[in-house]
């Protein structure tokens, strides 16, 4: 079954044609006695609230029209030559079906066989000819490259550059599973990174994983990549995707892959309701922050008055430190340098884990990089409240309250750390 020439040129398109057939404007393929069909799964932009692309997926059927799992299909080739043949046949089938599809704007996401990628761009030179003959503009194609180990990073980069030179977008698929690393992102500079479905599943079961997901999305954005979360299957995972700041979503929650291509571009998800649910949750989550500011503003002002009258930090902040959730109070000057040492809270929450004793003494520490300090210095006399973050002084999650005030012509900032997992207002 050798349909490919040794040179693997654009002429291979004619050699693949006998494996395709058309009926009612729909193309199917044949491989090892199986019938191959194109299924499309919509990809949605959260901000645009609509479809912005489709991933093309191959579906195989035996002569009795029984579905054949993809792993069985891709296990059939018994040589590299046949692997390349199947890869090309799938892409040719998808592009012909999509070229006849009633959508002249959105992207088509195409998977490329890892073996083709590993073989270098010259091995896939037929792809440019395929696009030229199809009439499908290259800028509407997103070439997906699966995250995998490779000993030849230079060849991989050349292959990705080849697709970019054609005018296609490139995407790293399954990032977050197996062999993911940011070095490859920086080396390949893909346009889009598709986060593996395992990240959504972990984030829905573990708050720490949710924070890590948010951080990954932020780093990818800073690297200049758009981010797509795949495998979104539940309303909660959709909320996680929105909160993480991903650009695009894909998964059964929004739409299953469909063999019936007609009408799929009219698939509608109620993003108004989805975003409304998120906004309501977000407001509820922010309410405790406002309550914290209101609850502690009066004790802060009293402490500031006492320090202006000459009392020590610990004595002035006695009422604040007595609260069961308060970890510590400290004072910072307008250069960001801590004045004197920290006043620790009462009870267990004020005791530092012995493992972190090297971090205990913060006298003269410089906190200028901290966002809560910059806000307090920029807006004196206004209570600032952070989101939960990891405290370097005790390696626990905390929320910091900060209030800037003037003392003898200079700005000072009174700060208070509250344990984020103790429910600060539960016993007030």
UniProtKB/TrEMBL annotation:
<dbReference type="InterPro" id="IPR035919">
    <property type="entry name" value="EAL_sf"/>
</dbReference>
<dbReference type="InterPro" id="IPR050706">
    <property type="entry name" value="Cyclic-di-GMP_PDE-like"/>
</dbReference>
<dbReference type="InterPro" id="IPR001633">
    <property type="entry name" value="EAL_dom"/>
</dbReference>
<feature type="domain" description="EAL">
    <location>
        <begin position="13"/>
        <end position="271"/>
    </location>
</feature>
<dbReference type="Pfam" id="PF00563">
    <property type="entry name" value="EAL"/>
</dbReference>
<dbReference type="GO" id="GO:0071111">
    <property type="term" value="F:cyclic-guanylate-specific phosphodiesterase activity"/>
</dbReference>
<dbReference type="InterPro" id="IPR029151">
    <property type="entry name" value="Sensor-like_sf"/>
</dbReference>
<protein>
    <submittedName>
        <fullName>EAL domain, c-di-GMP-specific phosphodiesterase class I (Or its enzymatically inactive variant)</fullName>
    </submittedName>
</protein>
């Amino acid at each position: 079954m050798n349909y490919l020439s040794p040179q693997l040129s654009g002429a291979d398109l004619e050699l693949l044609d006998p494996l395709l057939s058309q009926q009612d404007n729909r193309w199917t393929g044949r491989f090892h006695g199986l019938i191959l069909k194109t299924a499309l799964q919509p990809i949605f932009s959260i901000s645009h609230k609509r479809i912005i692309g489709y991933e093309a997926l191959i579906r195989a059927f035996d002569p009795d029209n029984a579905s054949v799992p993809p792993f069985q299909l891709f296990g059939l080739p018994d040589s590299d030559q046949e692997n390349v043949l199947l890869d090309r046949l799938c892409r040719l089938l998808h592009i012909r079906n999509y070229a006849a599809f009633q959508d002249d704007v959105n992207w088509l996401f195409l998977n490329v066989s890892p073996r083709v990628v590993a073989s270098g761009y010259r091995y896939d030179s037929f792809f440019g000819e395929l696009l030229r003959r199809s009439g499908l503009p290259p800028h509407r194609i997103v070439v997906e490259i699966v995250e995998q180990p490779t000993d030849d990073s230079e060849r991989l980069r050349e292959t990705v550059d080849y697709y970019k030179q054609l005018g296609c977008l490139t995407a790293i698929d399954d990032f977050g599973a197996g062999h993911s690393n940011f070095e490859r992102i920086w080396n390949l500079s893909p346009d889009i990174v598709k986060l593996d479905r395992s990240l959504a599943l972990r984030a829905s079961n573990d708050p720490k994983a949710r924070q890590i997901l948010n951080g990954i999305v932020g780093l990818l954005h800073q690297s200049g990549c758009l981010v797509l979360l795949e495998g979104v299957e539940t309303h909660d995972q959709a909320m996680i995707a929105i909160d993480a700041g991903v650009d695009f979503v894909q998964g059964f929650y929004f739409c299953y892959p469909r063999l019936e291509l007609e009408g799929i571009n009219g698939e509608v998800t109620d993003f108004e309701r989805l975003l409304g649910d998120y906004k309501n949750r977000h407001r509820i989550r922010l309410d405790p922050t406002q309550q914290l500011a209101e609850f502690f503003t009066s004790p802060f002002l009293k402490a500031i008055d006492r320090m202006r009258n000459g009392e020590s930090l610990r004595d002035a902040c006695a009422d604040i430190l007595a609260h069961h959730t308060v970890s510590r109070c400290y004072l910072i000057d307008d250069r960001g340098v801590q004045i004197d040492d920290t006043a620790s809270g009462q009870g267990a929450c004020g005791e530092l884990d012995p493992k972190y004793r090297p971090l205990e003494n913060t006298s003269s520490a410089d906190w200028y990089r901290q966002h809560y300090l910059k806000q307090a210095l920029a807006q004196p006399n206004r209570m600032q409240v952070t989101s939960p973050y990891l405290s370097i002084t005790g390696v626990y999650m905390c929320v910091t309250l900060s209030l800037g005030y003037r003392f003898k012509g200079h700005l000072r900032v009174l700060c208070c750390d509250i344990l984020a997992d103790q429910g600060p207002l539960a016993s007030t």
